[in-house]
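Incident log, support desk, overnight shift.

02:14 A customer reports that sequence design results differ from what the structure should imply. Their input is reproduced verbatim below. On-call engineer (initials T.W.) acknowledged and began investigating.
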């Protein structure tokens, strides 16, 4: 009886592992699609052709204009649902790797699960004919949060958390921490270098965007002004107001596109 029970448990774990792998890889593919499109839209903004917002809504509108656009949007949404389930499984059962069961790792996976659940919901809402721009959502959420007891502290803490997350993302990318998650044995050195380049440049750009967005939220909290909170589109456009002008946005936009490509590489080689 014990042997039979152990065998059934092994088969169940194997099936669970297969489902986890499918959801993870589909999620990474969907994430890559969004980042490539957002980077392309941001590049248009930098060169004065920003007819669509450089955020998730703009990316989905871009997809909607393509053949079978509705199907593509649903596919991206379901892929992000898969990403959510993958991160949830990591929070509940631990991530791949020798330190995947550490409480800090599980907590990080839980935070990612919540983040991707929100993203997946927004994509599926758009596919059903709803949804608003990220800038509007950021201002509305910030306004409601500021009206809560200790609202300024809550908004400030949230902004600080987003900013710190951006710094962590950039530092991890610069240190090539993603390497420990990749199974690339037997892959050519040239291919590994290409993945390294995508991971570093893409991660730095993504980290810069998160850090800037978090800074704007903190500024909104300090001045009790929800209009100062910026979504992805406004955050990206703010890069054009620096001393580097639109060229800084060009660099960030290309970096986001490269992060999209890196997500596709992760979908191929990530250990899950």
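02:41 Re-run completed on a clean worker. Output:
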């Amino acid at each position: 009886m014990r042997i039979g029970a152990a065998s059934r448990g092994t088969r169940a774990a194997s099936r669970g592992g297969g489902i986890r792998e499918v959801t993870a890889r589909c999620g990474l593919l969907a994430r890559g699609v969004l980042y490539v499109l957002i980077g392309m839209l941001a590049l248009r903004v930098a060169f004065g052709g920003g007819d669509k917002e450089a955020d998730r809504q703009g990316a989905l509108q871009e997809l909607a204009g393509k053949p079978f656009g509705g199907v593509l949007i649903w596919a991206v949404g379901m892929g992000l649902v898969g990403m959510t389930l993958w991160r949830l499984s990591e929070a509940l059962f631990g991530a791949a790797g020798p330190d995947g069961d550490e409480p800090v790792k599980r907590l990080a996976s839980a935070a990612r699960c919540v983040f991707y659940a929100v993203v997946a919901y927004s994509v599926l809402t758009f596919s059903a004919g709803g949804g608003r721009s990220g800038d509007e959502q950021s201002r509305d959420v910030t306004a409601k949060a500021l009206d809560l007891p200790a609202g300024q502290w809550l908004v400030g803490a949230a902004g600080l958390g987003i900013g710190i997350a951006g710094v962590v993302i950039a530092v991890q990318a610069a240190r090539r921490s993603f390497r420990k998650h990749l199974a690339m044995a037997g892959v050519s050195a040239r291919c590994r270098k290409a993945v390294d380049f995508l991971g570093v440049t893409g991660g730095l750009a993504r980290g810069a965007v998160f850090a800037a967005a978090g800074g704007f939220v903190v500024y909104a909290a300090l001045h009790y002004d929800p209009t100062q909170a910026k979504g992805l589109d406004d955050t990206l456009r703010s890069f054009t107001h620096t001393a580097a002008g639109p060229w800084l946005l060009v660099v960030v936009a290309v970096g986001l596109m490269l992060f999209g490509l890196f997500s596709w590489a992760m979908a191929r080689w990530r250990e899950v």
